[in-house]
Design brief:
about 600 residues, mainly alpha, THO complex subunit 1
Length: about 600
């Protein structure tokens, strides 16, 4: 470790010895870029060396960023001149990360370790180093590797700092994050709109003894801070809004009754004080009279009112969270009174009101951007292709009817590899298309319903079309589970995957159930067929017996009606005609009887 320390902290330009030192002690397989296990070995060595340097600085009583300060004879060498050993070590690692010799996130890990091992006084020097290297750390190859580590480092520093005593340092950290991360970065956006309800304003509940104070006004005044701390509570119950509006009316009436003069406003104004002044007003009832004469105090309260009104009217809320019509009218009247009071509050009341209105108007753009899902701000430039002025162009006739089809046909002839172009517009893969919805389904993401992709009709409609072509199994789950069931199971977070994941034996049970239904239906069909045959057979037998009985009765009637020989002679010729007619009738009856016998001997087929 001592040899590695001496080698990596040697004097001279970093580019001369940094890579050679890594090659000598790590002996990588490739000369210019380390593998994963080699990166891990080098990171462990650097973190151990950094820990030894911090411990040595603590024992010597020096500040860690000035410990072991290297003073080179060459004043033009800015890499080592005026730097301690720890900044020099960080410069070496930053150079290796920038040149992609080592993994890009190594410098961020060392900076996080350094802030955790340092006191708050030393953390200011460490953060000064981070600010000086902001341009290099913000490069894309380094930013992509260490943005989450840097965000965690800054958040840990903010938690350790006091918001009352370390205001400037907190502001430096927030300004660094605002410049380090792009505008469209979602990590800095309060997607859920959660309020800091822990910032509770404590005030006296019982009136003091021996002091004449309007204690009812005192309690009414400071009770407004409960609603300023959590404005969402005013939309949940109408009673809270009525209580808030009545308390606010009392405060505004008091401000109207006790206007401030220009002299009082200039004498008590804190705007020209030091920029590090942190306003945290005292809530003692003894100071109530003095605070009412403070113009900055009044502006503080009135500005809180305008912010609350702007939140209640903010776009993008659900219908249930929007204020009612009566509440909108009261909001408008209260807002007009507050703006009028701000305008007459010295000094420069009109200028202050215009600045506040401008800020609140700009805030609406932020709210709309959050409502639309935080789309990126960067847009590609548009090329202006203007036609030559004054030149008349003849209308062109297209080969295939319009410009789109003709252009498509010409591209196919000129560029046979157009379908292999990575930049062409094509149908996305089903997994890539459903990835935004799968991220919204993660409970830890905290996506509100208004911003959820499942409420985007066009997005869901296109997704169902893609699923019908590429994922029929997922498309079949839409009926039972809705649009969230169509998302591939492998994209879902583990905590919600079991809800949409089909059981392994579900298909087997469904197939067995269908087979059981098919067998029972076939048995019912056979039973109906057998019953029809049985009924048809019995019916034919009954009809046959009836037919035979009718035939026997007809034969007996014919024998009884046959005339004797004397009667036949007596009848003569007329009998011949009658006999012929009778014969015809008999033949007809015989034919009819034959048809009847035939029908009875062949019963109808049973219904199957």
């Amino acid at each position: 470790m001592d040899a590695f320390r001496d080698s990596i902290l040697q004097r001279g330009p970093i580019e001369r010895f940094a890579l050679k030192t890594v090659q000598d002690f790590i002996q990588p397989q490739r000369q210019t870029k380390l593998a994963q296990d080699e990166n891990q070995m080098l990171e462990n060595m650097l973190r151990t060396l950094l820990q030894h340097l911090v411990a040595s600085a603590a024992q010597s009583g020096e500040q860690i960023m000035q410990y072991g300060q290297l003073i080179d004879d060459d004043d033009d060498d800015k890499n080592v001149h005026g730097h301690g050993q720890i900044p020099h070590l960080l410069d070496v690692v930053l150079y290796l990360c920038e040149k992609e010799h080592v993994e890009g996130g190594m410098i961020f890990q060392l900076l996080e370790d350094l802030t955790e091992m340092s006191t708050m006084k030393n953390c200011k020097d460490v953060f000064g180093y981070i600010e000086s290297k902001q341009d290099i750390l913000g490069k894309q190859e380094l930013f992509a590797r260490g943005k989450l580590v840097m965000l965690r480092t800054c958040n840990q520093l903010l938690r350790r700092l006091s918001k009352a005593n370390d205001v400037v340092f907190c502001g430096r950290i927030l300004m660094f994050l605002a410049h380090f991360f792009p505008l469209s970065e979602r990590s800095a956006v309060n997607i859920k709109g959660v309020f800091n309800t822990s910032n509770e304003t404590k005030y006296e509940k019982d009136p003091p003894k021996g002091i004449s104070v309007d204690f009812n006004f005192y309690k009414t005044f400071w009770s407004l801070q409960e609603y300023f701390c959590n404005p969402a509570s005013l939309t949940t119950a109408s009673t809270k809004w009525q209580k808030f509006s009545s308390s606010l009316a009392v405060v505004l009436n008091t401000f109207d009754a006790q206007p401030l003069s220009e002299e009082e406003g200039e004498a008590n104004s804190l705007e020209e004080e030091a920029a590090t002044f942190n306003i945290k007003y005292l809530t003692s009832s003894k100071l109530m009279g003095l605070e009412l004469k403070d113009s900055s105090f009044r502006r503080h309260i009135l500005l809180q009112c305008l912010i609350l009104f702007d939140y209640l009217r903010a776009p993008g809320k659900n219908d249930k969270d929007l204020p009612s019509e009566t509440m909108k009218e009261e909001l408008k009247s209260c807002e007009d009174r507050v703006k009028k009071l701000l305008e007459i509050t010295p000094p420069k009341g009109k200028e202050f009101l215009r600045a506040v209105e401008h800020i609140l108007e700009r805030e609406k753009n932020w709210v709309w951007w959050k409502r639309d899902g935080c789309p990126p701000f960067e847009k590609q430039p548009i090329e202006n292709k203007s036609a030559i002025a004054g030149q008349k162009r003849r209308r062109q006739r297209w080969r295939l009817g319009n410009i789109e089809l003709s252009q498509l046909w010409r591209w196919a002839e000129q560029n046979p590899n157009a379908e292999k172009d990575a930049q062409r517009v094509k149908t996305p893969d089903i997994a890539d298309y459903w990835k935004p919805l799968a991220e919204d389904m993660d409970p830890s993401a905290g996506i509100e319903d208004a911003y959820h992709h499942k409420n985007n009709r066009v997005y869901c409609w296109k997704g169902l079309r893609f699923a019908a072509r590429q994922d029929l199994e997922g498309f079949s789950r839409f009926t039972d589970l809705g649009i969230e069931g169509v998302v591939p199971v492998e994209l879902l977070p583990p905590e919600v995957r079991s809800k949409y994941q089909a059981k392994p034996n579900e298909k087997a049970k469904r197939a067995k159930k269908d087979e059981t239904k098919g067998g029972s239906l076939e048995e019912e069909t056979k039973a109906v067929s057998a019953e029809g045959a049985l009924v048809g057979g019995s019916t034919s037998e009954a009809e046959g017996e009836v037919g035979r009985g009718e035939s026997e009765a007809m034969e007996s009637d014919a024998i009884a009606d046959t005339p004797t020989p004397e009667e036949q002679q007596r009848l003569g010729g007329s009998d011949t005609d009658n006999g012929q007619e009778a014969g015809q009738i008999e033949e007809a009856e015989t034919e009819e009887g034959g048809l009847m016998d035939t029908d009875l001997n062949h019963p109808p087929m049973p219904i199957s």
